[in-house]
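PROTOCOL LOG
Step 1. Enter all chains and additional molecules of the complex.
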Amino acid sequence: MNFPSNIFNSHSKKDGDFFLSISKVLGFKPKDVSIYRRAFLHRSVNLKDKKGNPMNYERLEFLGDAMLGTIISRHLYNEVPGGDEGYLTKMRSKIVSRKHLNELGKDLDLIRFVETKIPKSHFGDNIHGNVFEALIGAIYLDRGYKYCEKFIRERVIEPYVDIEQLEGKVISYKSLLIEWCQKQKKEFKYEVYEDDGKDLLKHFGVRLFINGKQVSKARATSKKKAEEKASKRAFFALQHKIEKS
Amino acid sequence: MNFPSNIFNSHSKKDGDFFLSISKVLGFKPKDVSIYRRAFLHRSVNLKDKKGNPMNYERLEFLGDAMLGTIISRHLYNEVPGGDEGYLTKMRSKIVSRKHLNELGKDLDLIRFVETKIPKSHFGDNIHGNVFEALIGAIYLDRGYKYCEKFIRERVIEPYVDIEQLEGKVISYKSLLIEWCQKQKKEFKYEVYEDDGKDLLKHFGVRLFINGKQVSKARATSKKKAEEKASKRAFFALQHKIEKS
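Step 2. Run joint prediction.
Step 3. Record the structure below.
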């Protein structure tokens, strides 16, 4: 990358912090950290490289958008062998929807890395999704396809992609579970605890009790998500009972 | 892949032919040739796998389309460091246009592999582009990202992607060259010869002479393409002279 060498040299403490923080988000160490810097440069900063080309995250966003689409396509291809081209296209567009990408970026609190001349409070929601895509573009340039796949698997597919839910077959496992408990006259309780794990993001923990017995627990970046996750786990653990009822 | 084991077993001669022919198109040997078979199965054949899922090229086309977009994006990112997101998007859509993909499929004569219940003469032009994309999807499943990149580089980018031409800056190197020759009062001659190379596709060779001296030669799958390629080579060889004129 053609970063003007004088931009970041004077901020070596700040550089070290960025390297550590971004490594935590990525789950691996960057080879060329300057590429990741670029993924968070807003056009308002108005930087140019040695050749006079504008430097901001928009080109990386273009690249990351394409790579994300490819890896989600591959995932859907494998997971839904009966889905035709139209179905796969529809499901992919749900997963990579603007709204969903903004959530992903927010959950990782990527906005803290953004360098901008405009106050961050002035940005709309899309900044979160844009830099999330730019980050994928940066991974692609820095470490190639395999690392993108790993990152997208860990940060998008595993925590968020539930095909049943996307298909609209299951809106909420929590409501399914509550309905079942009420029908069966079972008491249920969601117990929230603050999670003091070593994650970079604050997590919430939820334990789900049915008739006083813990049936599942889960952690997530919001209380609502943790409840949903715990419900889903309980749902699958109890599935044979639920289906018979 | 869940291919019903009885479909192709009875055609071992035909299978061997397919393996050889598709290896030539690919430039490498398939690991699992059944995936490539699927890339040419038209829905009219109405095949299903063991689990009852329809087998045709449409799902692979979905996958190949995404991968092609990603690799072209990466190419443009590298080649045009000054292009913004809008420019990159526009250029990519020119390269992966329906018309262009159909040409690529036709040049490789992919339709010879298509298995269909409908007479091939009834297909429109899009069949060529569709199976070209499906073929990329098959490479992705069979050999992964690296082989897709290699295939797209050899079969799409090197022979066909000329950024100057796509930008509309240069419509035709042949006309540029002829114009220059006429202005400079130089004689030019395109000499076509039939190429007897070992390529799987028939190629045409063209030698370009200016004032009786050969300045370039080129091979391509049509006379027109070979002339354009030879003109382009001559153009760059003579560029310093042309620019001064």
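Step 4. Note key features.
The longest strand of chain A covers residues 213-220.
The CA atoms of residues 11 and 186 of chain A lie 59 Å apart.
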